[in-house]
Design a protein that fits this description.
This protein is of the alpha/beta class. Helix content is about 40%, strand content about 10%.
């Protein structure tokens, strides 16, 4: 246990463990553009952190297309992202060091993500992290994904740790809202182009990458 009374560290996945957000944005842009949705890479960033079916639903209501089939579109995006992760996915800076440090401190380690299990398996396999997490929770089968806190609460429960003693690490604002709503301590690691945004003030801590985690846990 750290002096912050942290007993578990719960990682988000996309943008925290793996540099996949640009990949998600590109694939979503390609699929949605083909459906006639007037999106740009910049506007797609609005839905970062949302579960993919929620993202597709969001854009359908913005610019409806004929023969709407959320599951089909969502699966097309997921399959393409998963295949590309297996080919070219790379760990974010400090991932392995952060996880090793948590293990050295005897902290429980969890994963709470909006991504489907297909993506989770691809990421953990590609990064060699399949045996590192004591609990892996996806919002895939939940009624709501992030910013709803359920996936974080489920992860804390699976780890058998009070949510107040968990540190959640997030790169997206939707994920940060979910972690705060779960009553967890939070570390935000925004994308470089978003670091100056005032909205990140709701995080307990903010850093540029996971190399900052050991210092934070030493507080």
């Amino acid at each position: 246990m750290t002096s912050l009374n942290i007993q578990a560290v719960i990682f988000d996945m996309d943008g925290v463990l793996i540099d996949s957000e640009p990949l998600w944005q590109r694939v979503e842009y390609e699929v949605l553009s083909a459906l006639g949705v007037p999106v740009t890479i910049e506007t797609i960033q609005q839905t970062t952190g949302l579960r993919i079916d929620q993202c597709v639903d969001y854009w359908y209501h913005k610019a409806p297309w004929p023969h709407y089939d959320n599951a089909k579109v969502s699966q097309a995006i997921v399959d393409k992202v998963a295949s590309e992760i297996l080919v070219c996915g790379e760990a974010m800076l400090g991932v392995h060091e952060a996880i090793d440090h948590c293990q050295a401190l005897g902290l429980k380690i969890g994963l709470a993500t909006s991504s489907f299990y297909t993506i989770i398996e691809a990421v953990l396999s590609k990064l060699g992290l399949s045996d590192k997490f004591m609990a892996v929770q996806s919002a895939e089968g939940l009624t709501y994904g992030k910013p709803h806190p359920e996936v974080y609460l489920n992860c804390a429960k699976a780890l058998d740790v009070d949510p107040r003693c968990c540190l959640a690490i997030e790169d997206s604002f939707n994920g940060l809202v979910a972690a705060r709503a779960a009553n967890m301590q939070t570390l935000a690691i925004p994308a470089p182009e978003q670091r100056g945004d005032a909205k990140w003030v709701i995080a307990h801590h903010q850093a540029e990458n996971l190399l900052a985690l050991p210092t934070l846990l030493a507080q």
